[in-house]
Amino acid sequence: MKQVLDRLSAGWRSALVAGLVAALAGLLGVFTLPVLDRDEARYAQATAQMLQTGDFVRITFLDEDRNKKPVGIHWMQSAAVAATTGEAVREIWAYRLPSVLGAILAAIAAALMAGRLLGARAGLYAGTLMGATVLMGAEAGIAKTDAMLAGATAMALYALLRLRLSEPGDRRGRRSWAVLVWALLGLGVLIKGPVTPLAIGLGAAGLVMLEAWASRADGGLIAGVQRSIAWLKPMAFWPGPVVAALIILPWLISVQIATDGAFLREALGDDLGPKLVSGDEGHWGPPGYHLLALPLTLFPAALFLPAGAAAVRRALRSGGSGALAARVLIAFSVPLWVMFELLPTKLPHYVLVAFPAIMGVCAWGALEWERTRVIWKAAGITLSLVGVAVWAGAFAWLTFVHDSPVVMLALVLAAIAVLTALQIVIAFKRQAAGAVLAAVALGLVWHGGGRGMIAPSTDAFPALEAARLVAAEDLRPAGAPLISTYTEPSLVFSLGGEVRLADINDLADAWLAPAQAGGYALSQAYHAEGPALVIIDHSRVPGEGEAAVRAQALIGALQTDTCRSGAVQGYNYSRGRPVRLTAHRTGPCD
């Protein structure tokens, strides 16, 4: 085993293995999991509209500007789709490929960072754990910004580390690393605004302060800061900021002109601003939210985190090169983590940018496993068992509540149970390498079983079933409009984007008129509409009052006066309720 690990971790191989593990974990589910509500569907639809219109400056969803996040991920998705399926096919896996690439970059950066600080074996451990961990692999399979943001940010932090470790006399090398930091900062801004600059700034500032504090006895804290900050001087080398500006400003200026200045006003004032002062869109969480979620988001690498934290503590006390590694890993993770804990708006993936450094801590724990006290090993095993129990419960809930095959659940849970037992047994035998291997396998089983098999087989994707129904029953006349009271973005993407979202009350007002014998009948406005496909979400039909009467009258008229119809049932997880969708083809049959 030792010889195999030495070969796998030698030179560039640890980064290659890490990238392969991340690619495998990300791809498990990419091809089977239907398009997700709501962010993924919105990102994918906006990218599809870019490809349709040829406008790669403005970001739009249907007929509205989507002035929330920058354009970088849409350009990457556009390139991936154009190179694979094309826009008309609407295969969501093509839109997810940039996220897989982002996960690969994050895992490679984690391997390079830990390898540089702690040795080749640590690089192999950190990179493979990063690639297999739940949060990274899950984001790798979703067509939005966060996996690529993690990759760009992790690479920027690695470049910052190389700048710190460069020899003072290596002027050319130090400047090259500084320019690379700036370039990756620009890429990060183009993907998701301020997160990458914050990560770089907090990481650099944290490292300076930690090193100044460590050397405070030699001239005081102020003198220590002055000495510690010297390694950052190449960041002032003028080509660096110029490169970042050339990456960011051409599109930013263009979109400001195209939207009459609305992009920055809405992105900062309507999207970012509320996240800083309140739990935007209901995503509030108290300080400690991300820490409590750690056994789930860091699963299965959480086994080694307490041992790694103990190793960091020992290194800080003993000094030397180990202390530098400890300070770097703390600076590149803790300030970011604290910032996200203090923000009122919280989502689990926010802390993903801190994971590459945290994986270095976990790798350190694996390296120091034999000399780690039992209490820290027990804490790691406890975290691991909590993750196993919660995720196993989640898979069981999906299976029994949302109609996934029980046999599939049994196979996945059996594999998880065997690997968990194997991991614990190996850990008690002090064989850290085997425990890391079992952890990586456990993560891959989670991705393959949960994302790749159980979740796609549930009833939680009514938009996909509706799209299949429309195609199978020929419910949409050629060139006819599509009107839907089911307003989830997944339906918009699945049906090609040409959808008019409507409230059923507004539709009833437009299409119904009082009948002479009482009640309601379809009005001339309905007939003037011509052939159309109408999808009704029965879960949003009013339950009482005149609005309910009119809505039921419209549904009855559609059921009796349209050419063909069909129905699907499922679960709208965005609203947390079952849905029944009926699709009606209006007008004469062909």
How are the elements arranged and paired?
Blueprint: H1 2-9, H2 13-27, H3 39-53, E1 60-61, E2 64-65, H4 72-83, H5 92-118, H6 120-132, H7 134-140, H8 146-165, H9 171-192, H10 195-214, H11 221-228, H12 239-258, H13 262-277, H14 289-292, H15 294-297, H16 305-318, H17 321-331, H18 334-342, H19 355-367, H20 374-401, H21 406-428, H22 432-454, H23 462-472, E3 482-484, H24 489-494, E4 499-501, H25 504-511, E5 512-514, E6 520-522, H26 524-529, E7 533-537, H27 545-561, E8 564-572, E9 577-585
- Provide the domain count: 2
Radius of gyration: 27 Å
Count of alpha/pi helices: 27
Contiguous runs where pLDDT drops below 50 for at least 5 residues = none
Shape: globular
How many angstroms does the end-to-end distance come to? Answer: 69 Å
Total E-strand runs: 9
Reported for the largest beta sheet, the result is:
5 strands, mixed
Which bin fits the share of residues in helices?
Answer: 55-70%
Q: Kindly report the average pLDDT value.
A: 92
Query: Which structural category fits the helices and strands?
Result: alpha/beta
Strand proportion? 5-15%
How would you write the strand order of the largest sheet?
4-3-7-9-8
